[in-house]
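Page 42, continued from yesterday. The earlier attempt failed because a stray header line got pasted into the input along with the sequence. Redoing it now with the clean sequence only.
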Amino acid sequence: MSTIEQKEIIDFKKKGKEALESKKFDEAIEYYTKALESEEDPIVYSNRALAFNLSNKLEEALRDAEKAISMKPTWSEGYYRKGEALKRLNKLEEAKEVLEKAHELDPENEMIKKSLDSLRSTLNPKKTSQSDDPVIVERELPAWRHGKVSSRFERSSNTEAKCEYVANSGQRLEICMGDLTNEKVDAIVNAANNHLMLGGGVAGAIERAGGPIIQKECDLWTEKYGQVENGQCAFTSGGNMHCKYVIHAVGPIWHDGHRNEDKELLYAVYNSFIMGHRLKCTSLSVPAISSGIFGFPKDRCAKIMFHAALQFFKNYPDSTLRLIRFTNFDTPTVNTFVKEFKSRFGTTKAKESEIKSDEKMEVEELKEEKKEEK
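This time it went through. Structure tokens are written below.
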């Protein structure tokens, strides 16, 4: 290999690292691929595996991690990358074995240890209550978050309410079209990934509106608790936005409905409401979680999110959380939620007392399903 070729490879690796650190994952993949075309390197395969993982290209991430392991079988990093890919593919038992191998090779690596501990807690959860609710993994709320929250129910000037439901408790659900990041609510919900990396879609919009402090706080969360599993939540401040909090809910990537996607989305949405309740929020806005780059069908997403909201109102009628908004900016998604609202209630304004008996039964059935799952 000539000196010029060696310099090109070094340059590709450097640019790939810079792109990865800037969260330009597709660009990082392109540079790492160019480097690998000239020279196979387990470190580059591992870095490309990370870029694939963060781009939700999980099969490719798994392939690269396995290649890194085959080239350097005593290197813990390759096993760690493979374990992370397997976790997101919902192959949890296999992921546990791989991460245990990584931990065996490098027992002092805190990143590996946190990932393994988090996975073990998912496979063997500690029951914290007798409730039928999906359970948020118990976390101590960071001290810098505590404070008074607003009780205002305001919409930003560009938010339009399309539908409204009022529960017997007085709690409200609204279907809105508007900019989530400009909502004047106590908390907004981010459609997050497991690593709490704010890249594209809703997460990118939140980072642009809220400023770099939100990513810094996300990093603090993952450093302390490890990555956030599907169906679970984390939270940060709202940065420069009107809201006090951003609740980061991790929904599933769509795999044709064969990997517990419905259950994981239900838990992600419901747990975001529980998090809002625990933070003593009075109002909260949620986008159509997982229905963007994660590929979850919008109509199915709408049904599950309605399930979660109605069940929360039923289980927590005295909660401080009095207003939940499903807020999206694009017409197709908003229309899907409006269609689901009308199919349930036959109108754009409804009260619980006006719900047909079969609609009430639908919520009850959801609760029974959750009992069976536990």
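Notes: Residues 3-123 form a domain with the Serine Threonine Protein Phosphatase 5, Tetratricopeptide repeat fold (CATH 1.25.40.10).
Reminder to self: strip header lines before submitting.
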